[in-house]
TrEMBL record:
EC category name: hydrolase
Domain named Aminopeptidase N-like N-terminal: residues: 69-239
Database matches in CDD domains: M1_APN_like
Domain of life: Bacteria
Catalytic activity: Release of an N-terminal amino acid, Xaa-|-Yaa- from a peptide, amide or arylamide. Xaa is preferably Ala, but may be most amino acids including Pro (slow action). When a terminal hydrophobic residue is followed by a prolyl residue, the two may be released as an intact Xaa-Pro dipeptide
UniProt-listed Gene3D superfamilies: Neutral Protease Domain 2, tricorn interacting facor f3 domain
Protein name: Aminopeptidase N
Record flagged with keyword Ribonucleoprotein: no
InterPro entries, sorted: Aminopeptidase_N-like_N (IPR045357), Aminopeptidase_N-like_N_sf (IPR042097), Peptidase_M1 (IPR001930), Peptidase_M1_aminopeptidases (IPR050344), Peptidase_M1_dom (IPR014782), Peptidase_M4/M1_CTD_sf (IPR027268)
Similarity comment: family membership: Belongs to the peptidase M1 family.
Length: 479
């Protein structure tokens, strides 16, 4: 997620000399119908995860379940503002449990089955879908949920000025868009809504004639007004996206022939199209420092938001721009592209480690701005340290975020300052070799602070534990 003008404001100070600124055991589940199909769950092995409970938002997610694959068949009817869906979830229970419990908004349930057997007692209560079927650890099941209703959002736990309610949003003209970090996927499909449970996806969205539907993943064809997308790399729920509206599409090629797609709303987003077209250059800048782009396709979809989000393979950018600052907008795009490596391909295990995403993306953004504006390392150092001190005083250190202050500036600037210190200690050649090794050898995994620290020490041949701990934990800026 970007902070609009975050880097621009800090860089401005640099350019003027830095003047300012346990799971419940259960009996065996009922047997599936005799004619139930035999399913080979091995095909979704890439979606296996090790879910955990979250320390900041413990009501979201279920560590007893590992969703391997989401098959979402959706239809949007703007005239009645009704979303109709059938979600097919391939689930590996991570523990024995008396029921299947997932995050889900209170849509009307039309049908719920487990391995083809109807479950009439399924219900949505307190934003949880509860399916009273016992499951056993490592005995996969297929859950199918058919539902319909009007989408509604959930509050954002943050004081940021550029945030809106989370989840599937209906605009005045009955279009749809979503941003859902740290949660909110459950506002449009039943989900294990936590970053530690990544899964594969197949999504089909049917829309009215003349409308388009955009989702994360690789475009998988179109049949009439049904748009399809597939993710063969695992995706965290917060990195999924959906946008429906009257879009125009531009196709392009990035480095090594990488297919790119930009979706924009004619008459609304025209002014940012030249910036969208610079995506190949942004990706090339990042590849030079962090190695090959980690996914088979990329792109951007513009939506009616004031913010932006690093949704996987299809960045979601807000088009609520009073006066376009093209340079600032492009730095934000670079930031979101950087997240494809840091956060998407390598994902944090829980929300205490958001710094591991945002610090890297922000540092990449500073490096890009520096390449354009030619400010010195000394200017960047001065401004980073000054802003770091202010943020630690007001929000605390980056590794100890408060639940009510999600994704505020301390998890961006403070770890970016730490990464600059690491860069200074190692020099560019060794630092970028370390960064490249981190994202390329840990692809499609969930990582933690401990694993990152161990990797840095191992890769560099030096002990940076003290430096990392100081910058992540200290109430004041480390010396």
């Amino acid at each position: 997620m970007h902070r609009r003008s975050l880097v621009a404001a800090l860089v401005a100070t640099a350019l003027i000399g830095g003047c300012t600124d346990k799971a419940e055991s259960a009996p065996a589940r009922p047997a599936a119908p005799v004619n139930a199909p035999v399913i080979d769950y091995a095909q979704w092995r890439a979606g296996m995860s090790a879910p955990v409970a979250d320390p900041l938002y413990p009501r979201l997610g279920n560590p007893a379940l590992d969703v391997l694959h989401y098959g979402l068949d959706l239809a949007w009817q703007p005239g009645t503002a009704t979303l109709t869906g059938t979600a097919t979830l391939r689930i590996r229970p991570a523990a024995d449990a008396a029921q299947i419990k997932l995050d889900f908004k209170p849509y009307r349930l039309d049908r719920v089955t487990v391995d083809g057997a109807a479950v009439p007692g399924a219900a949505v209560t307190a934003e949880k879908l509860v399916v009273p079927v016992a499951v056993r650890r490592d005995r996969p099941v297929t859950l199918v949920v058919a539902y319909h209703g009007a989408p509604s959002t959930t509050p954002m736990p943050s004081h940021r000025t550029d945030t809106e309610p989370l989840g599937l949003t209906v605009t005045k003209d009955r279009a749809l868009w979503t941003m859902q970090e740290p949660y909110g996927a459950y506002t449009w499909y039943p989900a294990n809504d936590h970053p530690s449970d990544e899964a594969l996806y197949d999504i089909a969205v049917t829309v009215p004639k003349g409308w388009s539907a955009v989702a994360a993943g690789t475009p998988a064809g179109r049949s009439g007004t049904t748009f399809r997308y597939r993710s063969t790399d695992p995706v965290a729920t917060y990195l999924q996206t959906l946008a429906v509206g009257r879009y125009r599409k531009i196709t392009a090629r990035g480095p090594h022939g990488l297919p790119l797609t930009y979706w924009y709303r004619p008459g609304v987003d025209d002014k940012v199209v030249p910036s969208l077209r610079k995506s190949p250059a942004f990706i090339a800048f990042l590849e030079k420092r962090f190695g090959p782009y980690p996914f088979p396709t990329g792109g951007i979809v513009m939506v009616d938001s004031a913010s932006g989000m690093e949704t996987q393979q299809m960045i979601t950018m807000g088009g609520k721009i009073r006066k376009l600052d093209a340079a600032g907008f492009e730095e934000d795009l670079l930031h979101e592209y950087a997240h494809q490596w840091f956060g998407n391909s390598v994902t944090p295990t829980n929300w205490n480690d958001l710094w591991l995403n945002e610090g890297w993306a922000t540092y990449a953004q500073f490096l890009y701005a520096q390449s354009i504006q030619k400010f010195s390392d000394e200017q960047l150092e001065y401004s980073l340290r000054k802003r770091d001190a202010e943020l630690r005083k007001g929000l605390g250190p980056p590794a100890h975020p408060k639940a009510a202050n999600f994704a505020e500036s301390n998890v961006y600037i403070c770890p970016a300052a730490m990464l600059k210190e690491l860069n200074d200690a190692l020099g560019d050649k060794r630092f970028f070799a370390l960064a490249t090794a981190w994202v390329q050898t840990q692809r499609n995994t969930q990582q933690t602070r401990a694993s990152f620290t161990a990797f840095v020490n191992r890769q560099s041949g030096r002990d940076f534990t003290g430096l990392i701990n100081a910058w992540l934990d200290s109430p004041s800026t480390p010396n």
